[in-house]
Specification:
This protein is mostly helical and 179 residues long. It has eleven helices and no strands. It has helices at residues 9-15, 21-31, 37-46, 52-65, 71-77, 83-95, 100-109, 114-127, 133-142, 146-165, 168-173. Helix 2 (21-31) runs parallel beside helix 4 and helix 3 (37-46) packs antiparallel against helix 4. The longest helix is centred in the C-terminal third of the chain and has 20 residues, at 146-165.
């Protein structure tokens, strides 16, 4: 976004109520650059919107602002039927270091729905979650869906590069390797 949330807050407040979910989701995303109480209230309300794109953008916006006071709602959203809402909620929970985050990610990586597993892989890759390397490597070999297998293979390669770039200090810890 252009970080113009404060400047356009009144207009965005109206757009959040628009009938078109694309307009609403864009307004919600842009409101994330405003930290006013009105914006936070609108974003918190958007967590319950009927459209998954709007909810996902609200999670992202609140996450970037570090608004952990909605963590109980995000814990519930970490079980969402929408893969994007679910992944964004888990991402926020991981960033806020809540206890439920790691188990929620593990469940998503093992979900029976391919879209959810792919979103979980995106999450592992985007956060560089080296601790998930073993699970992702296994998925790249054994997952029943060819798209998930392929995506898991790319994520493993990314994680390997991340580990290599971390240098010798990381390799000495070996915290991701099971003995």
């Amino acid at each position: 976004a252009l970080n113009q949330g404060d400047f356009f807050e009144k207009t965005l407040g109206l757009m959040v109520k628009d009938q078109d979910p694309r307009i609403t989701s864009a307004a919600v995303r842009t409101l994330g650059s405003s930290s006013s109480m009105g914006s936070i209230k609108a974003l918190t309300k958007a967590l319950s919107h009927g459209n998954p794109r709007v909810r996902a953008n609200a999670v992202e916006a609140l996450s970037e602002q570090g608004k952990a006071d909605c963590s109980q709602q995000l814990i519930r959203m970490a079980k969402s039927e929408s893969n994007r809402v679910r992944a964004n909620a888990i991402r926020a929970l991981l960033q806020w270091r809540t206890g439920e985050a790691v188990s929620a990610l593990g469940e998503m990586l093992q979900d029976h729905r391919a879209k959810h597993r792919i979103s979980a892989l995106w999450l592992v890759e985007s956060l560089g979650l080296i601790s998930s390397a073993g699970t992702v490597a296994e998925m790249s070999i054994t997952d029943r869906d060819p798209w998930v297998k392929k995506r898991a293979g790319r994520v493993v390669q990314h994680l390997i590069k991340t580990m290599q770039a971390s240098g010798p200090a990381f390799r000495q810890r070996k915290s991701f390797v099971k003995n």
